[in-house]
TrEMBL record:
This is SLAM family member 8. Residues 263-285 are annotated as: Disordered. Residues 1-22 form the signal peptide. GO terms for biological process: leukocyte chemotaxis involved in inflammatory response; regulation of B cell differentiation. The keyword Transmembrane helix applies. It comes from the Eukaryota.
Length: 285
């Protein structure tokens, strides 16, 4: 009896016209989602069938005359629960679970209703990484200001957006030219009054978000502290010294290369015995 009902439902599905993707449902990897089966109050469901439509059509759950069944061989086996209101719960979700799902319902009067839902599964956003880069001081720049570039990056994540927030404000309110590469890089000019001001990079997708906060003035080094050396002072010493050592090495290779070859040639010549002339032997007539 159950098999005959199932075949009748599949026949109903084959005869019904194609249904466009309906409402979109969003969730994240590791979570669960509830796909709601909606019908009018006067629609008394007698039989129902849930299908996954991508990448191939798979039977997930059925309802026949009060009996719920979810033990069908599919990629969701063990991760499916059919509730009494015929809504389908999936979880824990995986990255490849995105796709279209449909439910076919038949009421006690033989009327059929098909509903299609689109599920989109996102990865949870990890904590971003913010780096601070100091711009070289320009001619027109005040000696008491520091121009910095804040770079924000979230690893191995797609479909994300970047935004920035200054401490004590709801939004950054930065000019458009202050943002680069789709909001990943922010350029700000800091003064002595901004020593304790922090900036937060907010990374988000439709289902999750995270942020990282930095105080960029700490990276500004207009003057090295007593007893400490700034990275600029280190570069002024290390770079010329490296160039000097490289030039000395090249000069040594150029100078000693020919001399060494000549010396080896002289030693080899001293060790070889002098050649003696072989007497000519003439045949007697």
């Amino acid at each position: 009896m159950v098999m005959r009902s199932l075949w009748s439902l599949l026949l109903w599905k084959a005869l019904l016209p194609a249904v466009a993707a309906g409402a979109q449902v969003l969730s994240k990897v590791g979570g669960s989602v509830l796909l709601m089966a909606e019908h009018s109050p006067g629609f008394h469901v007698r039989e129902a069938i849930w299908l996954s439509l991508w990448p191939s059509e798979e039977l997930l759950a059925t309802f026949f005359r009060g009996s719920l069944e979810t033990l069908y061989h599919s990629r969701f086996l063990g991760r499916v629960q059919l509730h009494s209101n015929l809504s389908l719960e999936l979880g824990p979700l995986e990255t490849g679970d995105s796709g279209n799902f449909s439910v076919l319902m038949v009421d006690t009067e033989g009327r059929a209703r098909t509903q299609t839902l689109q599920l989109k599964v996102y990865d949870a956003v990890p904590r971003p990484v913010v780096q601070v880069f100091i711009a070289a001081a320009g001619v027109a720049q005040s000696p008491k200001t520091c121009q910095v570039f804040l770079s924000c990056w979230a690893p191995n994540i797609s479909d994300i957006t970047y935004s920035w927030r200054r401490q004590g404000t709801v939004d950054l309110g930065a000019e458009p030219h202050s943002l680069f590469t789709d909001g990943q890089v922010l350029s700000v000019s800091l003064g002595p009054g901004d020593k304790s001001v922090s900036y937060s990079c907010i990374v988000s997708n439709p289902v999750s978000w995270d942020l990282a906060t930095v105080t960029p003035w700490e990276s500004c080094s207009h003057e090295a502290a007593p007893g400490k050396t700034s990275y600029k002072d280190m570069l002024l010493v290390v770079v010329p010294l490296s160039l000097l050592l490289t030039l000395v090495g090249l000069f040594s290779a150029w100078h000693w290369g020919p001399c060494s070859a000549k010396k080896k040639k002289d030693i080899r010549a001293d060790r070889e015995p002098p050649e003696t002339e072989s007497p000519l032997v003439q045949d007697l007539p």
